[in-house]
Structures are given as structure tokens and as C-alpha cells.
Amino acid sequence: MKRKAVSALLCMSMVVGMLAGCGSTDAGSAGSTASADTPYSGQKVSIMWVSNSSMDGINAVVDAAEKELGIEVDVEQVPGGEDGDNVVKTRLASGDMTDLLSYNCGSLLASLNPSEYFADITSDYADKLDENFVEAAGVDGTLYGIPASASQAGAVLYNLDMYEKYNLEIPKTWDEFLANCDVLREAGETAVLGTDGDSWTSQVPYLGDQYNVQAADANFAEDFEAGKTKYATSEAGLESFQKIEDLIPYMNEDHMATTYDDGCDIMMEDGAAHWIILTSALSNMYELYEDDVNKLGCFAVPGRDAENCGLTVWEPNAIYMNKDTDNSDAVKAFMDFYVSDAGLDAFTGAELPNGPYCIKGYELPEECYTAVKQMQADYFDTGLNSVALEFQTAVKGSNCAAICQELASGQTTAAEAAAKYDEDCKKQAVQLGLNW
Amino acid sequence: MNKKKIYSSWFLAPSMIVFSVFFLLPMVLSLFFSMTVWNFNGFEFCGFDNFIMFFKEDSLRIGIRNSLLYAVLTCVLKLVLAFFIALFLTSKIKTKTIQRSIVFFPNLVSTVAVGITFSALMHPSKGLLNKCLEFIGLNGVDWLGNTKIALFSVIATDVWKGLSIATIIFIAGIQSIDKTYYEAAMMDGANFWQRLKAITIPLSRSSMNSIILLSFIGGLRSFDLIWSMTGGGPGFATDVMASIIYKQYAAGYYGLSTAGNVIMFVIIAVIAFPLQRFLLSKEVD
Description:
The structure holds two protein chains of two kinds. By secondary structure, chain A is α/β, with parallel strands linked by helices. In chain A, 48% of the residues lie in helices and 13% in strands. Chain A has two domains: 39-149 and 316-350, D-Maltodextrin-Binding Protein, domain 2 (3-Layer(aba) Sandwich), CATH 3.40.190; 152-314 and 373-432, 3-Layer(aba) Sandwich (D-Maltodextrin-Binding Protein, domain 2), CATH 3.40.190.10. Chain B has 13 helices and two strands. Chain B has a two-stranded antiparallel sheet with strand order 1-2.
């Protein structure tokens, strides 16, 4: 008797489930017929989103695009870093890639062999985009991607209240910066926040120093790619690694176990004065703490020359179009929408930019973060900025993060780390067929 | 002569085909590709350059040392601890079944989940482990951040997780020992330690050997737990052979990582085969 009742219940739930399933598809088709004027109604576009940061922006654009174009967008999120690289490379090689892929540009794009997999969109978008971005999201003069978000910088985020409290000035040179740190340390504050529990954050002081390296040696990137200059033997290059070593005494004691997520909390709870990090952290903090994020300011990793103190900029991820997509019209339409003012407004409405946009003529919104306004005024309006090394050369050692983490943990010296990194880059050079 | 061969050798064919296609062929292919710089579109022959570069890798020294240390320590710890746990669980105790299941539980959890849980427990300022130490008045330890301790923290976690399998094998071994030996020994007035030394240990030798081999080889190629707890870090302090190879593959140095795999295969084979020989020769019938 009992068994009968249970089976009857199961049958019923099955029927109800089926009805519910049909119901939703009915509603879907009804919805699309209602808005028959949308050009691509019912078409599906899939996008793989490789990133560890906030998804609010892309979700907002997707919602807007679905309304505007009638397409159905399927977003698949993949974590960034080594595991994400593996997924992307395997899916590309096996011909199983989504219609669109949002992934790094620069050296990581070059390592994907883009001409094999991605459509050439030079004639469609190149004029609308910032030149640095076109260079970074393309290989050999062919553009493959449109910017997935705003650019960002590897810079020092600092606590404005603490700077006021201890009467500090924004440092223009590395020595001034360390002097500020001394003041803060003596006052019992954590002068510099280290988040070496996530090794990728360990490399930001080195990577963010690229502007200063280039200021000292304008041809550094070319010579490095050609194998003529090495970090261990170049004075300016070595200094970048030295900076990581210099920071150790000022860091929080548990910096080897502190993660990026912990770091966001610590900065928002006034737990540290400086954090050398990508400015995309601002979005993560905004998501959790909203307007509190405006208590942070931003300055470039200082170098030697107080007159020439500039910012190292990261081009955003780019969105690439799969060459073998079945419905290229709908995919193209989505890309057009993505870089249109309506698309950009949808994105910035949900997720404020972490730096200026790479799309010509698009102004930053009024309610921007304080730190981003500072960036715009101090480094973009003045032209004191350049892109990070990974956008200038395809040679980037894969163990960069671990080498910097090792240095931050005090296991190696700056000179050893620089030599190790040179050796690490050699492997990439071999894979790229460069003669090192 | 003919009597020996009742079945035709063709019976071997199905399994040999599977074995060749899925084991022999890939092995030969990987040997070939380890001597090329390849990607998914093509390859370029480069001789032994990959091997030379792999051996030059600075972290390789750390990797091999860590792999050996990891294998030996997890193996010994599991063996000793599991033996005594098994001894306890085969003695006359109540709630035997429940206790045996409890010992087996850690093995049911996915390794990555164990890794994430333990790295949270071992957090220097927020982890439960250090909070307990603080409570009894001791200074906390940076379990995974301190480069000298990190590997041992992972080893301890591995032992916690892997203990159960070793215990199960030991329980089976100890239970299969004929009770009459113990009865005879007790008649002769042998005490607990004497019985342990003269009967239990020698007669559970075969299970001991399986545990040594399993955990040693498992330790040599361990990867998942280390990757989820430290990612080979801080820096390269807990890198093992497998994690070095994984990182090279993820970076797209396919030829180099294939060479690394060949080297790892050779190293494991060179250690495991003589070890097995040695252990089997010591086994008593």
C-alpha cells in the first residue's frame, strides 16, 4: 500500500516536472514572438568567461543584450590562472570552444596561437579602440578581440585617512615610499599589506614597476624578447625584484597565509596602509563594502625619478570570436552591442570601472571610485603611463608568481630571484621558437 | 607438453589489444614527443634538449628531494600508525564496527576537499589549530606559510587521509592469521609483546609489503593534496615532481612536460621494482 502511494507520488511529480519544463519553454517562445522586432530572437550565443573577479558587469550586459537583441546568452565561468589556461587550451585544441571567449590579451593570447582559432575583426573594431589595446589584443597587426572591461593598473592602493592622520604625502620615489612606511610602522600600523597566500599577488610589485624599468631603459622590452637583456644583469630590472625584498619588513606577519580575499577585508577594515595590487581589487571591495571603497586612493609604484613617476597599466581581458561558430551574425551583433554606448553603460552601471576604458570617446561615469579618478587625473591626463611587460612581449615566465612568492617569503634574494626568472623565461622562449 | 597449453594464446588477444592501445602505444608516443617541442598543431624535433632543460630546472632538485621525503615519511608513518590501529581494532573490543567505520571515514572525502579544509584549519591567525594552541598557551605556527614546516603539514594531512586504507589492509592480514598459533604461544606462556614479535608481525608481512608499495608509489606521484593545499608554494618549497610537470604543462611547454613525465616514470620504476623484489624476497611462507 505504502509502495503504491510512493510510486503514485513519484509519477505525479514527474508529470508536474514535465509540465513545468514545457511551460517555461512555452513562455520563452511566447516572449520572443511578442518582441518579434528583435533581430536575432531565439538564437543562442555562448561565452566562456575566464576570470576570478566580479561577474556583475558581464551579467548586466548579457541581460541588456538579451532584451535588446532577443538572443539567448549562455555564460560559462572558468577560474583564471593555471587551471583556467588548461581549460582554455584543451577546449580550443579539441574544437569544443564556446562562440565567444573572454581571456587575457598580451603574451597569454599569443600562446594560444590565435590565428588558428579566432576570427579576424580588424576591419570591424580597430578604429574604435585605443591603440595600446589593439596592439595587445592582436598578433602581427591582426586584431582578434574587443575589450571585455575597462583597463586597470598595478599600483599602490593606500588608505586616505591614514595618510591624513600621519600627515603623509604621496611618495614620488621609492625612498620616499619607504620613509612613509617607516612612519607607519613606528606608529604601529601595518605599513604594507602582503597577500602572498595567493601567489599571483606576490608578483604585482615587480610587474607594476615596468614603467620605471622602461623609463630607465626605453628598449627593455625589445631587448628582453631578443634575449639581449636579462633581469639579473639589468640594473633597472633587478630593482623591480629588489622592491619585493624591500617590502618584507613592513608587511603583516601572516602575509604568507593571507589571501587576496582576506586582503580586501583588511584594507576595508583599515588594517593596513598600502597594498600593491591590481586595481581590479576595487571592484571586489565595492561588491562587499560598497561606498567604503572610496576611502582608498591610488598612486603608481614609485621609481627613482620624482619627475617621471608613471603608472603601469594592464589592458583588460579581451573577448574573442570563435572562427568556427555556427551563428556568426548573432555573435557579431552581441559584440557590436558590447562596445556600444548602451552596452558599456549597462556594464559600468553594474560594475564601476577600475581604470579608463580602451574604447575611444567613452568617458568614465561620474560615480567612479576615488582611486580611479586619481588615476585618470595623475597618470592618464598627463600621459604618464605605459602598458605592462606582458603586453609588449610574448615572453613571460610561467613561474613568475612562484618566484616572487619565494622572494617575499625570504627564501631567496632579489638577485637570485631575478636570475631564476630569466631562466624561467628561457623555457617560454624555446616554446615560442626564439633564439635565446 | 601439450597438456600445459589447454587454451589458445588467442585468448590473450582482447586484453593485449587494450593494453597496447591504451598503455604501450601512449608510452612509446610520449617517449617520441618528449624529444620534440610540440603544440597542438605540430612538432619540431629537438633531440635531448628537453631532458637537459628539465634537469637544469632549479626547482627540480627541490622536487625530487620533496617527492622522496614525502614518499618515505608518509609510507613509514602510515605503516606504523596503521599497524597499531589495526591491532587495536582486531582485539576484543566493543563497538568494533563503528570504530572501524570511523577510521575509514577520511578516505571517503575527496582529496581536494580535505586539502581545502586543512588549509583553513592551518591558517596562522584564523585557523582552528592555532586557536587551540593559543588556548593552551602555546605560540601558533604558520603551518603552510613557513617554508620549513609546509611540507610536513601536507605530509601529516596525507597520513590522516591515507591511514584508513593501510588499516583495512592490516586488519585483513591480522585476521587471516590462524588463531591456533596464538593458542599455542599462550600455552607456552608467551606474553603480548612476544606474541606480537613472533606471530603477528611476521605473519602479516604480506599485507605490510602491499602497504609499503602502495603508499610509497602513491607518495612519489602525489599531486592533488599538495596542489590544493599549497600549490607547490610558498615559492617552490613544497613542489614535487608531479606539480613541477603540471605547471610546465599548464604553461604550454608541452615537450618539456612530456620529458618530465618520462623522467618521473623512469625514477618511479627504478625505485619501485627493486623495492618490490626486496620486499618479496623477505616474505615468509
